[in-house]
TrEMBL record:
PANTHER family: N-ACETYLGALACTOSAMINYLTRANSFERASE (PTHR11675), POLYPEPTIDE N-ACETYLGALACTOSAMINYLTRANSFERASE (PTHR11675:SF63). Residues 61-245 form the Glycosyltransferase 2-like domain. Keywords: Disulfide bond, Glycoprotein, Manganese, Membrane, Signal-anchor, Transmembrane, Transmembrane helix. Belongs to the glycosyltransferase 2 family. GalNAc-T subfamily. The keyword Cell inner membrane does not apply. It comes from Lottia gigantea. This is Glycosyltransferase 2-like domain-containing protein. Pfam families: Glycos_transf_2. Its cofactor is Mn(2+). One of its GO terms (biological process) is protein O-linked glycosylation. It is a single-pass type II membrane protein. The lineage of its organism: Eukaryota, Metazoa, Spiralia, Lophotrochozoa, Mollusca.
Length: 390
């Protein structure tokens, strides 16, 4: 595997460099991989013997939006879903092209999908760039299955990934579930397991992986059990389709990228649902060191975070301003509809959420020293892993 990364001559060096500058990961290696490659089954051993009768599980629509994704990474994502999801459960994969400009994502992609997966894969194209958030809403509205699964366009789902997620939704349709998001190395494309962590957030409203709180850890018989999580990383989760609608989807006025993970997390907990990380479900994601969509001065992100803070966080919105002074004075539009939704769903206060669901969260302006054994180098929507210290 590692020898695929070897650059033999100056032509290859140019291909490597250009690929990296386009995608911030090693497209040179990505292109060389078999789209059906085997990845290590990194599940806890107890997961492997668990039986989930397929007839008891709901069907799924997998929604993947993409913008100028590397063709090989997108195809590998789709292949992994087709290869590792029981066909009775997989109603369709909806992929939404968010107005990409790369040539291979135009005609060639459509033809490739038609030949390979006629009918199972539906390709929608936005006539203008609408962003990740609106694209996902569009995808969800086209879905015909009972459960929605959102994935990024550079993922690889692992063996038995879907059954344990669906099993939790069957038990309680208001449970929103996320897999463990394993690491696909941006340089080598090597798939590696990551430790079982839960979702938290920084007061600047960026997602953070946290260790399992001691109190919760003590209640778990082993690390294959689903674990309640205060937030979900934005990219990868499953939710009952009707429940997603009841929750008002994503706030449609959130623009492009960012903040939607916090919106759905707060909303689910505050309005009577719950979020769980399901360690028996593993999905690889290419974590990039550079986040093309994540700029702390991006006006859309700032606006999105303020919409979330003002709609869901009550008096704690001040913490967000304190943690991110550049939000001061930023216009965030009308949130009346979202506040009406919150009232209609009779949602709890943010202080209830903190006390009941996330008591570990403390007011902290610099989170960097909070957990000495966990260093987050670059904070992203999904979070970035660093190998050191786990
Ligand atoms: N994306 C999109 N339109 C955008 C921005 C992002 O369709 O305007 C897609 C992107 O191709 C990816 C997903 O949304 O499949 C999530 O974005 P990204 O991977 O950049 O988020 P991260 O993993 O860095 O948090
Ligand atoms: Mn991603």
């Amino acid at each position: 595997m590692y020898d695929l990364s070897v650059i033999a001559n100056s032509t290859e060096d140019q291909i490597y460099t250009e690929g990296f500058s386009r995608h911030y990961f090693n497209q040179f290696v990505s292109d060389k991989l078999d789209p059906n490659r085997t990845i290590p089954d990194v599940r806890h051993k107890l997961c492997k013997n668990r039986d989930y009768p397929v007839f008891k599980l709901p069907t799924v629509t997998v929604v993947i939006c993409f913008l100028n994704e590397a063709f090989s990474a997108l195809i590998r994502t789709i292949h992994s879903v087709i290869n590792r999801t029981p066909s009775e459960l997989l109603k369709e994969i909806i992929i939404i092209d968010d107005f990409s400009s790369f040539e291979d994502l135009k005609g060639h992609l459509g033809t490739h999908l038609k030949i390979k997966y006629y009918k199972k894969v539906i390709l929608l194209r936005n006539p203008v760039r609408k962003g990740l958030i609106m694209s996902r809403i569009i995808g969800s509205r086209h879905a015909t299955a009972e459960v929605l699964v959102f994935l990024d366009s550079h993922c690889e789902v692992n063996t038995g990934w879907i059954e344990p997620l669906l099993d939790r939704i069957v038990l309680n349709r208001k449970t929103v579930v996320a897999p463990i998001v394993d690491s696909v190395d941006a340089y080598t494309m090597v798939y590696d397991s990551v430790p079982v962590l839960v979702g938290g957030f920084k007061w600047n409203l960026f997602f953070r992986w946290d260790p399992i709180p001691v109190k919760i850890r003590k209640m778990l018989s082993d690390l294959s059990q689903p674990i309640k999580s205060p937030t979900i990383s934005g990219g990868l989760f499953a939710i009952d389709k009707e429940y997603f609608k009841e929750l008002g989807e994503y706030d449609p006025k959130l623009k492009i990228w960012g903040g939607e993970n916090m919106e759905i997390s707060f909303k689910v907990w505050q309005c009577g649902g719950k979020i769980e990380i399901v360690p028996c479900s593993r999905v690889g994601h290419i974590y990039r060191q550079v986040q093309p969509n994540n700029d702390k001065n991006d006006v859309n992100i700032k606006r999105n975070l303020l919409r979330v803070a003002h709609t869901w966080m009550d008096e704690y919105q001040q913490y967000v301003y304190d943690a991110r002074p550049n939000l001061e004075g930023v216009e965030y539009g009308d949130i009346t509809e979202r506040v009406t939704l919150r009232n209609r769903l009779r949602c709890q206060s943010f202080s209830w959420y903190l006390k009941t669901i996330f008591p570990e969260q403390v007011r902290q302006f610099s989170d960097s020293h909070r957990f000495v054994h966990f260093t987050d180098i670059v904070q992203t929507r999904i979070g970035t892993y660093c190998s050191e210290g786990f």
